[in-house]
Protein backbone atom coordinates (compact mmCIF):
# COMPACT_ATOMS: atom_id res chain seq x y z
CA UNK A 1 0.00 0.00 0.00
CA UNK A 2 1.54 3.28 -1.15
CA UNK A 3 0.25 5.92 1.27
CA UNK A 4 1.61 8.69 -0.96
CA UNK A 5 -0.93 7.76 -3.62
CA UNK A 6 -3.95 7.69 -1.30
CA UNK A 7 -6.64 10.38 -1.45
CA UNK A 8 -6.64 12.58 1.71
CA UNK A 9 -10.05 11.27 2.78
CA UNK A 10 -8.83 7.65 2.52
CA UNK A 11 -5.60 8.37 4.37
CA UNK A 12 -7.39 10.20 7.20
CA UNK A 13 -9.81 7.28 7.52
CA UNK A 14 -6.94 4.77 7.60
CA UNK A 15 -4.95 6.60 10.28
CA UNK A 16 -8.04 7.32 12.38
CA UNK A 17 -8.93 3.61 12.37
CA UNK A 18 -5.41 2.86 13.53
CA UNK A 19 -5.68 5.45 16.31
CA UNK A 20 -9.00 4.11 17.49
CA UNK A 21 -8.02 0.45 17.08
CA UNK A 22 -5.03 0.87 19.36
CA UNK A 23 -6.98 2.73 22.02
CA UNK A 24 -5.23 6.03 21.35
CA UNK A 25 -8.49 7.94 21.15
CA UNK A 26 -12.19 7.49 21.92
CA UNK A 27 -15.42 7.31 19.94
CA UNK A 28 -15.86 11.08 20.01
CA UNK A 29 -12.24 12.17 20.53
CA UNK A 30 -9.41 13.04 18.20
CA UNK A 31 -9.21 14.73 14.82
CA UNK A 32 -6.93 14.62 11.80
CA UNK A 33 -6.41 16.97 8.90
CA UNK A 34 -4.41 17.26 5.68
CA UNK A 35 -3.65 20.42 3.71
CA UNK A 36 -3.51 19.57 0.00
CA UNK A 37 -1.47 21.30 -2.70
CA UNK A 38 -4.47 23.41 -3.74
CA UNK A 39 -4.83 24.93 -0.27
CA UNK A 40 -7.88 22.85 0.69
CA UNK A 41 -8.06 21.31 4.16
CA UNK A 42 -9.41 17.77 4.54
CA UNK A 43 -10.48 17.14 8.14
CA UNK A 44 -12.30 14.50 10.15
CA UNK A 45 -15.90 15.38 11.06
CA UNK A 46 -17.27 16.37 14.44
CA UNK A 47 -19.66 14.10 16.36
CA UNK A 48 -19.08 10.98 14.24
CA UNK A 49 -18.11 7.59 15.69
CA UNK A 50 -14.35 7.19 15.11
CA UNK A 51 -14.72 3.41 15.17
CA UNK A 52 -16.89 3.39 12.03
CA UNK A 53 -15.45 6.38 10.15
CA UNK A 54 -15.79 6.17 6.35
CA UNK A 55 -14.00 8.12 3.58
CA UNK A 56 -17.29 9.84 2.68
CA UNK A 57 -17.46 11.21 6.25
CA UNK A 58 -14.33 13.33 5.75
CA UNK A 59 -14.98 17.06 5.25
CA UNK A 60 -13.21 19.36 2.81
CA UNK A 61 -12.79 23.01 3.84
CA UNK A 62 -11.99 24.81 0.61
CA UNK A 63 -9.39 27.53 0.29
CA UNK A 64 -12.19 30.12 0.08
CA UNK A 65 -13.72 28.87 3.37
CA UNK A 66 -16.65 26.97 1.85
CA UNK A 67 -17.34 23.47 3.18
CA UNK A 68 -17.97 20.32 1.16
CA UNK A 69 -19.21 17.16 2.81
CA UNK A 70 -22.13 15.51 4.56
CA UNK A 71 -20.96 16.56 8.05
CA UNK A 72 -19.58 19.58 9.84
CA UNK A 73 -15.79 19.71 10.33
CA UNK A 74 -14.34 18.80 13.72
CA UNK A 75 -15.01 21.31 16.49
CA UNK A 76 -11.21 21.62 16.78
CA UNK A 77 -11.05 23.01 13.23
CA UNK A 78 -9.91 26.47 14.53
CA UNK A 79 -6.57 25.25 15.85
CA UNK A 80 -5.91 23.19 12.70
CA UNK A 81 -6.46 26.37 10.66
CA UNK A 82 -4.21 28.38 13.00
CA UNK A 83 -1.36 25.88 12.63
CA UNK A 84 -1.50 25.86 8.83
CA UNK A 85 -1.55 29.66 8.78
CA UNK A 86 1.47 30.01 11.05
CA UNK A 87 3.47 27.08 9.61
CA UNK A 88 3.32 26.79 5.78
CA UNK A 89 5.69 23.78 5.99
CA UNK A 90 3.07 21.78 7.92
CA UNK A 91 0.77 19.71 5.69
CA UNK A 92 -0.86 17.43 8.28
CA UNK A 93 -2.09 17.79 11.87
CA UNK A 94 -3.06 15.06 14.32
CA UNK A 95 -4.84 15.56 17.65
CA UNK A 96 -5.78 12.74 20.05
CA UNK A 97 -6.12 11.82 23.72
CA UNK A 98 -4.00 8.71 24.47
CA UNK A 99 -4.09 7.91 28.19
CA UNK A 100 -0.34 8.14 28.85
CA UNK A 101 0.01 11.55 27.22
CA UNK A 102 -3.16 12.82 28.86
CA UNK A 103 -1.61 11.81 32.19
CA UNK A 104 1.39 14.01 31.42
CA UNK A 105 -0.88 16.87 30.30
CA UNK A 106 -2.84 16.68 33.57
CA UNK A 107 0.39 16.71 35.57
CA UNK A 108 1.66 19.65 33.48
CA UNK A 109 4.73 17.69 32.39
CA UNK A 110 6.20 16.48 29.11
CA UNK A 111 7.89 13.11 28.41
CA UNK A 112 11.68 13.12 28.30
CA UNK A 113 12.93 12.40 24.74
CA UNK A 114 16.45 11.79 26.11
CA UNK A 115 15.31 8.39 27.39
CA UNK A 116 15.60 6.89 23.88
CA UNK A 117 18.22 7.34 21.19
CA UNK A 118 15.83 8.00 18.30
CA UNK A 119 13.11 9.99 20.08
CA UNK A 120 14.80 13.43 19.96
CA UNK A 121 15.28 13.13 16.20
CA UNK A 122 11.64 12.16 15.63
CA UNK A 123 9.83 14.33 18.16
CA UNK A 124 12.24 17.20 18.68
CA UNK A 125 11.60 19.56 21.57
CA UNK A 126 8.11 19.06 23.05
CA UNK A 127 5.96 22.12 23.61
CA UNK A 128 3.22 22.70 26.17
CA UNK A 129 0.08 24.81 25.55
CA UNK A 130 -1.85 26.11 28.55
CA UNK A 131 -5.52 25.23 28.97
CA UNK A 132 -8.28 26.85 26.96
CA UNK A 133 -11.80 25.75 26.03
CA UNK A 134 -11.68 23.00 23.36
CA UNK A 135 -12.59 24.29 19.91
CA UNK A 136 -12.04 27.92 20.86
CA UNK A 137 -10.02 30.50 18.99
CA UNK A 138 -8.10 31.09 22.23
CA UNK A 139 -6.93 27.45 22.22
CA UNK A 140 -5.94 27.80 18.57
CA UNK A 141 -3.86 30.85 19.44
CA UNK A 142 -2.03 29.09 22.27
CA UNK A 143 -1.30 25.96 20.23
CA UNK A 144 -0.16 27.87 17.15
CA UNK A 145 2.09 30.01 19.35
CA UNK A 146 3.97 26.84 20.32
CA UNK A 147 4.13 25.67 16.70
CA UNK A 148 5.46 29.10 15.75
CA UNK A 149 8.53 28.29 17.85
CA UNK A 150 9.27 25.47 15.41
CA UNK A 151 7.97 22.60 17.53
CA UNK A 152 6.02 19.71 16.01
CA UNK A 153 4.74 17.98 19.17
CA UNK A 154 2.62 19.95 21.66
CA UNK A 155 0.96 18.71 24.84
CA UNK A 156 -2.32 20.50 25.61
CA UNK A 157 -2.91 21.11 29.30
CA UNK A 158 -5.65 18.83 30.69
CA UNK A 159 -6.53 17.84 27.14
CA UNK A 160 -4.23 15.70 24.99
CA UNK A 161 -1.60 16.13 22.31
CA UNK A 162 -1.20 17.72 18.88
CA UNK A 163 1.46 16.69 16.35
CA UNK A 164 2.27 17.94 12.86
CA UNK A 165 4.26 16.81 9.85
CA UNK A 166 5.00 17.30 6.20
CA UNK A 167 2.45 14.52 5.66
CA UNK A 168 0.04 12.56 7.86
CA UNK A 169 2.37 9.59 8.22
CA UNK A 170 5.11 11.82 9.64
CA UNK A 171 2.64 13.45 12.04
CA UNK A 172 1.47 9.98 13.12
CA UNK A 173 5.06 8.77 13.57
CA UNK A 174 5.75 11.72 15.87
CA UNK A 175 2.52 11.11 17.77
CA UNK A 176 3.07 7.37 18.14
CA UNK A 177 6.69 7.85 19.22
CA UNK A 178 5.68 10.47 21.78
CA UNK A 179 2.90 8.25 23.17
CA UNK A 180 5.29 5.31 23.30
CA UNK A 181 7.86 7.48 25.08
CA UNK A 182 5.25 8.50 27.67
CA UNK A 183 4.24 4.89 28.31
CA UNK A 184 7.87 3.84 28.74
CA UNK A 185 8.55 6.64 31.20
CA UNK A 186 5.50 5.72 33.27
CA UNK A 187 6.59 2.07 33.32
CA UNK A 188 10.15 3.00 34.21
CA UNK A 189 9.11 5.19 37.13
CA UNK A 190 7.77 2.09 38.89
CA UNK A 191 10.97 0.11 38.21
CA UNK A 192 13.93 2.20 39.27
CA UNK A 193 15.95 5.33 38.65
CA UNK A 194 15.53 6.83 35.18
CA UNK A 195 18.73 6.93 33.14
CA UNK A 196 18.33 9.53 30.37
CA UNK A 197 21.04 9.71 27.75
CA UNK A 198 23.80 12.25 28.20
CA UNK A 199 24.21 14.96 25.57
CA UNK A 200 27.46 13.25 24.55
CA UNK A 201 25.68 9.93 23.90
CA UNK A 202 22.83 11.66 22.04
CA UNK A 203 25.40 13.34 19.79
CA UNK A 204 27.17 10.01 19.31
CA UNK A 205 23.89 8.36 18.27
CA UNK A 206 23.21 11.12 15.74
CA UNK A 207 26.72 10.91 14.32
CA UNK A 208 26.43 7.27 13.27
CA UNK A 209 25.98 7.23 9.53
CA UNK A 210 23.96 4.84 7.42
CA UNK A 211 26.05 1.97 6.04
CA UNK A 212 26.25 2.61 2.30
CA UNK A 213 26.42 -0.47 0.11
CA UNK A 214 26.98 -0.79 -3.62
CA UNK A 215 23.86 -1.94 -5.46
CA UNK A 216 23.18 -5.07 -7.50
CA UNK A 217 20.33 -6.48 -9.57
CA UNK A 218 19.38 -9.98 -8.34
CA UNK A 219 19.53 -12.53 -11.13
CA UNK A 220 16.39 -14.14 -9.70
CA UNK A 221 14.17 -14.29 -6.65
CA UNK A 222 14.12 -17.96 -5.70
CA UNK A 223 11.01 -19.68 -4.30
CA UNK A 224 12.87 -19.94 -0.97
CA UNK A 225 13.50 -16.18 -0.87
CA UNK A 226 9.87 -15.44 -1.84
CA UNK A 227 8.64 -17.71 0.96
CA UNK A 228 10.90 -15.93 3.46
CA UNK A 229 9.58 -12.53 2.30
CA UNK A 230 6.05 -13.76 2.99
CA UNK A 231 7.04 -15.09 6.42
CA UNK A 232 8.69 -11.77 7.29
CA UNK A 233 5.63 -9.77 6.29
CA UNK A 234 3.34 -11.87 8.50
CA UNK A 235 5.52 -11.38 11.57
CA UNK A 236 6.22 -7.68 10.91
CA UNK A 237 2.47 -7.13 10.74
CA UNK A 238 1.89 -9.24 13.86
CA UNK A 239 4.58 -7.33 15.72
CA UNK A 240 2.88 -4.03 14.94
CA UNK A 241 -0.60 -5.32 15.82
CA UNK A 242 0.71 -6.62 19.16
CA UNK A 243 2.39 -3.24 19.79
CA UNK A 244 5.88 -4.75 19.85
CA UNK A 245 6.98 -2.22 17.23
CA UNK A 246 5.62 1.09 16.02
CA UNK A 247 5.56 3.44 13.00
CA UNK A 248 8.91 3.15 11.23
CA UNK A 249 10.64 1.36 14.10
CA UNK A 250 11.47 -2.33 14.37
CA UNK A 251 13.91 -4.18 12.09
CA UNK A 252 13.40 -7.76 10.93
CA UNK A 253 15.89 -9.89 9.03
CA UNK A 254 16.27 -13.49 7.90
CA UNK A 255 19.18 -15.33 6.27
CA UNK A 256 18.41 -16.52 2.72
CA UNK A 257 21.70 -18.28 2.01
CA UNK A 258 25.24 -18.20 3.45
CA UNK A 259 25.92 -14.87 1.71
CA UNK A 260 22.40 -13.40 1.46
CA UNK A 261 19.84 -12.00 3.90
CA UNK A 262 16.63 -10.00 3.77
CA UNK A 263 16.07 -6.89 5.91
CA UNK A 264 13.32 -4.32 6.39
CA UNK A 265 13.74 -1.00 4.53
CA UNK A 266 14.64 2.26 6.19
CA UNK A 267 11.77 4.62 7.03
CA UNK A 268 8.90 2.36 5.92
CA UNK A 269 5.63 2.28 7.89
CA UNK A 270 5.75 -1.09 9.64
CA UNK A 271 2.01 -1.62 9.33
CA UNK A 272 1.96 -1.13 5.56
CA UNK A 273 5.40 -2.26 4.37
CA UNK A 274 5.14 -4.55 1.32
CA UNK A 275 7.00 -7.76 0.45
CA UNK A 276 8.60 -6.09 -2.56
CA UNK A 277 9.99 -3.33 -0.31
CA UNK A 278 12.07 -5.78 1.75
CA UNK A 279 15.74 -5.44 0.84
CA UNK A 280 17.96 -8.31 -0.29
CA UNK A 281 21.60 -8.02 0.84
CA UNK A 282 24.25 -10.11 -0.92
CA UNK A 283 27.81 -10.00 0.37
CA UNK A 284 28.51 -6.25 0.50
CA UNK A 285 25.82 -5.32 -2.02
CA UNK A 286 22.27 -4.02 -1.62
CA UNK A 287 19.31 -4.75 -3.86
CA UNK A 288 19.00 -2.09 -6.57
CA UNK A 289 17.08 1.14 -5.78
CA UNK A 290 16.37 0.18 -2.17
CA UNK A 291 17.60 1.54 1.17
CA UNK A 292 17.97 -1.01 3.97
CA UNK A 293 17.56 -0.33 7.68
CA UNK A 294 20.42 1.50 9.38
CA UNK A 295 21.05 -1.74 11.27
CA UNK A 296 22.19 -3.53 8.09
CA UNK A 297 25.88 -3.24 9.01
CA UNK A 298 25.31 -4.67 12.49
CA UNK A 299 23.16 -7.50 11.13
CA UNK A 300 25.81 -8.45 8.58
CA UNK A 301 28.40 -8.59 11.37
CA UNK A 302 26.13 -10.92 13.35
CA UNK A 303 25.47 -13.24 10.40
CA UNK A 304 29.17 -13.35 9.51
CA UNK A 305 30.26 -14.05 13.10
CA UNK A 306 27.52 -16.56 13.99
CA UNK A 307 26.62 -19.12 11.28
CA UNK A 308 23.99 -20.62 13.62
CA UNK A 309 22.00 -17.35 13.53
CA UNK A 310 19.41 -17.35 10.73
CA UNK A 311 17.19 -14.49 11.89
CA UNK A 312 17.56 -11.22 13.78
CA UNK A 313 14.94 -8.83 15.19
CA UNK A 314 15.49 -5.42 16.76
CA UNK A 315 12.51 -3.78 18.45
CA UNK A 316 11.39 -1.66 21.41
CA UNK A 317 8.54 -3.38 23.29
CA UNK A 318 7.26 -0.97 25.91
CA UNK A 319 7.64 -3.11 29.07
CA UNK A 320 11.15 -4.22 28.10
CA UNK A 321 12.12 -0.63 27.36
CA UNK A 322 10.79 0.42 30.76
CA UNK A 323 13.69 -1.59 32.18
CA UNK A 324 16.08 -0.42 29.44
CA UNK A 325 15.83 3.23 30.51
CA UNK A 326 16.44 2.50 34.20
CA UNK A 327 19.26 0.99 36.23
CA UNK A 328 17.40 -2.33 36.55
CA UNK A 329 17.90 -5.55 34.56
CA UNK A 330 15.26 -8.04 33.40
CA UNK A 331 15.53 -11.29 35.34
CA UNK A 332 14.45 -13.99 32.88
CA UNK A 333 14.11 -16.57 35.67
CA UNK A 334 10.38 -15.99 36.03
CA UNK A 335 8.86 -19.14 34.55
CA UNK A 336 10.60 -22.09 32.79
CA UNK A 337 9.60 -20.89 29.29
CA UNK A 338 11.19 -17.49 29.86
CA UNK A 339 14.53 -18.90 30.90
CA UNK A 340 14.55 -21.63 28.23
CA UNK A 341 13.97 -19.12 25.43
CA UNK A 342 15.76 -16.03 26.76
CA UNK A 343 18.48 -17.46 28.99
CA UNK A 344 20.26 -14.63 30.85
CA UNK A 345 19.66 -11.39 28.92
CA UNK A 346 22.87 -9.57 28.04
CA UNK A 347 22.89 -5.86 28.94
CA UNK A 348 25.03 -3.44 26.90
CA UNK A 349 25.32 0.32 27.33
CA UNK A 350 24.28 1.88 24.03
CA UNK A 351 27.26 4.27 23.99
CA UNK A 352 29.64 1.31 24.36
CA UNK A 353 27.80 -0.43 21.52
CA UNK A 354 28.09 2.59 19.21
CA UNK A 355 31.81 2.82 19.87
CA UNK A 356 32.47 -0.91 19.43
CA UNK A 357 29.60 -2.87 17.81
CA UNK A 358 31.92 -5.85 17.30
CA UNK A 359 32.09 -6.24 21.09
CA UNK A 360 28.29 -6.46 21.21
CA UNK A 361 28.29 -9.05 18.43
CA UNK A 362 30.85 -11.11 20.37
CA UNK A 363 28.48 -11.31 23.36
CA UNK A 364 25.82 -13.12 21.30
CA UNK A 365 25.94 -16.89 21.74
CA UNK A 366 23.64 -19.94 21.74
CA UNK A 367 23.32 -19.47 25.51
CA UNK A 368 22.94 -15.65 25.09
CA UNK A 369 20.47 -15.05 22.22
CA UNK A 370 18.97 -11.84 23.62
CA UNK A 371 20.74 -8.50 24.07
CA UNK A 372 19.31 -5.34 25.61
CA UNK A 373 20.95 -2.17 24.35
CA UNK A 374 20.24 0.33 27.10
CA UNK A 375 18.07 3.29 25.98
CA UNK A 376 17.97 1.83 22.48
CA UNK A 377 16.38 -1.55 21.76
CA UNK A 378 16.06 -5.26 22.39
CA UNK A 379 17.90 -7.55 19.97
CA UNK A 380 16.88 -11.20 19.58
CA UNK A 381 18.37 -13.85 17.34
CA UNK A 382 17.27 -17.36 16.42
CA UNK A 383 17.80 -20.34 14.19
CA UNK A 384 14.50 -19.36 12.56
CA UNK A 385 12.58 -16.11 12.24
CA UNK A 386 9.77 -17.56 14.35
CA UNK A 387 12.20 -18.39 17.15
CA UNK A 388 13.62 -14.86 17.13
CA UNK A 389 10.07 -13.47 17.21
CA UNK A 390 9.08 -15.85 20.01
CA UNK A 391 11.99 -14.53 22.05
CA UNK A 392 10.83 -10.96 21.43
CA UNK A 393 7.32 -11.78 22.64
CA UNK A 394 8.50 -13.78 25.65
CA UNK A 395 10.87 -10.97 26.69
CA UNK A 396 7.97 -8.50 26.66
CA UNK A 397 5.71 -10.89 28.59
CA UNK A 398 8.51 -11.52 31.08
CA UNK A 399 9.07 -7.77 31.61
CA UNK A 400 5.33 -7.23 32.05
CA UNK A 401 5.15 -10.05 34.61
CA UNK A 402 8.06 -8.60 36.56
CA UNK A 403 6.32 -5.23 36.69
CA UNK A 404 3.14 -6.86 38.01
CA UNK A 405 4.99 -8.99 40.56
CA UNK A 406 6.44 -5.83 42.10
CA UNK A 407 2.90 -4.76 42.98
CA UNK A 408 2.28 -8.16 44.60
CA UNK A 409 5.19 -8.04 47.00
CA UNK A 410 8.32 -8.58 44.96
CA UNK A 411 10.06 -10.86 42.49
CA UNK A 412 10.65 -14.47 43.50
CA UNK A 413 12.67 -15.93 40.60
CA UNK A 414 13.52 -19.53 39.87
CA UNK A 415 16.44 -20.61 42.06
CA UNK A 416 19.92 -21.36 40.76
CA UNK A 417 19.31 -25.09 41.34
CA UNK A 418 16.04 -24.95 39.39
CA UNK A 419 17.84 -23.06 36.60
CA UNK A 420 20.50 -25.78 36.36
CA UNK A 421 17.77 -28.41 36.31
CA UNK A 422 16.20 -26.66 33.28
CA UNK A 423 19.54 -26.55 31.47
CA UNK A 424 19.96 -30.29 32.02
CA UNK A 425 16.33 -31.29 31.31
CA UNK A 426 16.13 -29.33 28.03
CA UNK A 427 19.77 -29.87 26.99
CA UNK A 428 20.32 -26.12 26.78
CA UNK A 429 23.71 -24.83 25.58
CA UNK A 430 26.05 -23.97 28.42
Low-confidence stretches: none
Q: Enumerate how many helices there are, as a single number.
A: 15
**What distance separates the N and C termini?**
45 Å
Helix/strand-derived class? Answer: alpha+beta
How many strands, which pairing sense, and closed or not: the largest β-sheet? 9 strands, mixed
Account of the 3D structure:
This protein has 430 residues and is α+β, with helices and mostly antiparallel strands. Helices cover 39% and strands 17% of the residues. It has 15 helices and 17 strands. It has helices at residues 8-21, 77-86, 99-106, 119-123, 137-147, 168-189, 199-207, 223-241, 296-305, 318-324, 336-342, 350-355, 357-363, 385-407, 416-425; strands at residues 31-35, 41-43, 59-61, 67-68, 92-96, 126-129, 153-156, 160-165, 214-216, 251-257, 260-263, 279-282, 285-287, 311-315, 346-348, 370-373, 377-382. The strands form two sheets. A nine-stranded mixed β-sheet has the order 9-13-12-11-10-14-17-16-15, with helices on both faces. An eight-stranded mixed β-sheet has the order 4-3-2-1-5-8-7-6, sandwiched between helices. Strand 3 and strand 4 form a beta hairpin. The protein is globular. The two termini are 45 Å apart. The mean pLDDT is 93.
Features of the shown structure:
430 residues, alpha+beta, 9-stranded mixed beta sheet, 8-stranded mixed beta sheet, 17 strands, globular
Record the SSE blueprint.
Elements: H1 8-21, E1 31-35, E2 41-43, E3 59-61, E4 67-68, H2 77-86, E5 92-96, H3 99-106, H4 119-123, E6 126-129, H5 137-147, E7 153-156, E8 160-165, H6 168-189, H7 199-207, E9 214-216, H8 223-241, E10 251-257, E11 260-263, E12 279-282, E13 285-287, H9 296-305, E14 311-315, H10 318-324, H11 336-342, E15 346-348, H12 350-355, H13 357-363, E16 370-373, E17 377-382, H14 385-407, H15 416-425
Parallel strand pairs: 6-7, 9-13, 15-16
Antiparallel strand pairs: 1-2, 1-5, 2-3, 3-4, 5-8, 7-8, 10-11, 10-14, 11-12, 12-13, 14-17, 16-17
Helix pairs in contact: 2-5, 6-10, 9-13, 10-14, 11-14
Amino acid sequence: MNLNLMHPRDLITLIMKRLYGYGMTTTSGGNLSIMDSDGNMWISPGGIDKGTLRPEDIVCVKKDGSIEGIHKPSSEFPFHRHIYQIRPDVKAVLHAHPAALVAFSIAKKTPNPALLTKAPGICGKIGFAEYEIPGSEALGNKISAEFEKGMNCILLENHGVCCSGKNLLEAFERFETLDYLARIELKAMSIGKLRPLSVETQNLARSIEQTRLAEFMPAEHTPHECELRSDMMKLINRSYNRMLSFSTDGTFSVRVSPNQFLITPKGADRMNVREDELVLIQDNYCELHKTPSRAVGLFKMIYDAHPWVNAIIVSKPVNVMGFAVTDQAIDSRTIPESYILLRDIVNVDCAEHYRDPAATVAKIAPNAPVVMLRNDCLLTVGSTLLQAFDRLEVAEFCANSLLSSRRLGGVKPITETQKQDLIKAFNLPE
